[in-house]
Amino acid sequence: MIRKADFAATLLALLATTVSAVACRGPQFERSILLDAIPPAAEGSDVIAKVEILEVSIHEAPGLYPYRVARGRALQSIRGTADGQIVEIYAEPDSCGGGLDQRAVGRAGFVAGRFKQLVNEILFEGSWSNHQIGKF
Fold first, then answer.
1. What is the C-alpha to C-alpha distance for residues 15 and 99, in angstroms, rounded to an integer?
2. DSSP structure class, residue 94
3. Looking at residue 69, what is its pLDDT?
4. CA distances from 17 to 10, 25, 26, 27, 60 (A)
5. What is the largest CA-CA distance in the chain?
């Protein structure tokens, strides 16, 4: 016979190990920062530009896990940036992707989103799922 204390401990252990495991719900929810075109869902974004990724580095801040930041140069400004402006992009992936790493250096694409303050940095933040992008 299972004791209540053993059952409660087992249940708590099961919850603790499964709650933090978040998985992407499917290919239509995979995320991307660099886009081939601006999706209709992104038209209202504060920042829209075509950028070239110059470098990707790891930033550290007190109390936070290290996170990736990509530096991009605005090749074509549409809203919220100027041509030639250097933009720092929050590039840490989530369970559905949406990150940038060293393989992105030299790539160009459109970004859409907003500037957001993270600790003492102003970073561009914007990633879109295939579900939001639709067909180009």
1. 28
2. B
3. 97
4. 11, 19, 22, 25, 27
5. 71
Contact between 9 and 2 under an 8 Å Cβ cutoff? The reply is no
Tokens 């500037």, residue located: 115
Is the pLDDT reported for residue 14 higher than 70?
no
Question: What are the tens digits of pLDDT across the range 90-130?
Answer: 999 999 998 999 999 999 999 999 999 988 899 999 999 88
**What phi and psi values does residue 30 have, to the nearest 5 degrees?**
-60, 140
Identify which of 56, 51, 64, 73 has the alpha carbon closest to the alpha carbon of residue 118. Answer: 64
Q: Which two tokens stand for residue 114?
A: 């907003």
The phi-psi region of residue 43 (left if phi > 0; otherwise alpha if psi is between -120 and 50; otherwise beta) is: alpha
| Confidence (pTM) | 0.78
